[in-house]
Amino acid sequence: MKLIVGLGNIGREYAHTRHNIGFMVVDELARRWGVSFDRTDRNAMYAEYRLPEKVLLLKPTTYMNLSGVAVGAYADFYNIAPEDIAVIQDDMDMPCGQLRIRRKGSAGGHNGIKSVQQHLGTGEFPRFKIGIGHPERSSQAVVNHVLHAFQNEEKELIEKAVQEMADAVECWLREDIEAAMQKYNKKPAKA
Q: Which residue in 16, 19, 145, 148 is the catalytic one?
């Protein structure tokens, strides 16, 4: 069994913000697979798919900083190993639209990832990152940046990045993390 977690903030006002890139990717996977997030349990909306193995798509219903509550609950309930949990996140330290896949790693200042690490008790889970660009260096600028929508010139890059990251997650499911890293860790697409 695999668990695919899109990190984001629940609520219409956050729907198309930079911090919700994880939700955008799992929404794209749900669209491709013909499933919907019509069930809520353990602090998350979820959808099920079979490949033939069971795959759960997860959107935590807590805010970003508490995302690990849902991830830990699903991992415990279904006895899912950390290496079988893909977490899709935004990354401010990469250019807008760039993809990076890692087998494991640190939180790198990302509060959603810190929460997932805390609730899983490890950082040994795959990260599927999409760059959202970085604002000027101040804490208020960072908050404003991640909670605002993409600008016009960024929208096409992000649409392509969401499609490619959904492809990368499917590659991970069909093959493994090494195949996904080799194929999708590259420079940002051009709009």
A: 19
